Amino acid sequence: MTVRTYQSKYGLSVDMDFGDVIRILATPYYSFNELKNSFIFNQFNVFNDQGGIVRFLMNEADMRNYGTDYQVPVYYIMGANDYNSPYLLAKSFFDEIVAPDKHIYSIPDADHMPFLSSKTEFDRILLEEIAPKLAKS
Predict the structure, then answer these.
(1) Which of the 8 DSSP states describes residue 129?
(2) At residue 133, does pLDDT exceed 50?
(3) Cβ neighbours of residue 114 under 8 Å, at least 6 residues apart?
């Protein structure tokens, strides 16, 4: 919540417009059912009249409550200019994770949604760096 306070104070929060929503809908990475249950739609209360997921994420969610030991690979792809999930906070948690394979990717000049703001680099990381690792496992 401290981060959110400073985001509001200095105008660093992500403001989505209709074009962003269209680009998200067009992404090949998610099905419509996955998207409709995501934060992206729930922040607009499109499918949820109470905004329950958003309220949970903003006020109650603490990822440490779910543990840090994973039996699957863990990959973070982050924008270096993500003011919603600051790199240092994400990295701090990421360092606690124990997984068969893990890597954190930071995309320069990308924001909170690097799959939109830096699509080419995001795709490159997925297809050239992560996919080959998963194909081997």
Answers:
(1) I
(2) yes
(3) 77, 78, 79, 82, 107, 121, 122
Tens digit of pLDDT for each residue in 13-58? 555 556 666 666 676 766 666 666 555 555 555 444 455 555 666 6
Per the listing, tokens 């068969």 go with: 100
pTM above 0.85, yes or no: no
Separation of alpha carbons 71 and 98, rounded Å: 8
Contacts 24+ apart (CB under 8 A), 64-73: 64/93, 64/96, 68/93, 68/96, 68/97, 68/98, 69/97, 69/98, 69/99, 70/97, 70/98, 70/99, 70/100, 71/99, 71/100, 72/99, 72/100, 73/99, 73/100, 73/101, 73/102, 73/133, 73/134, 73/137
**Within 13 Å of residue 103, how many CA atoms lie on the same side as its CB?**
11
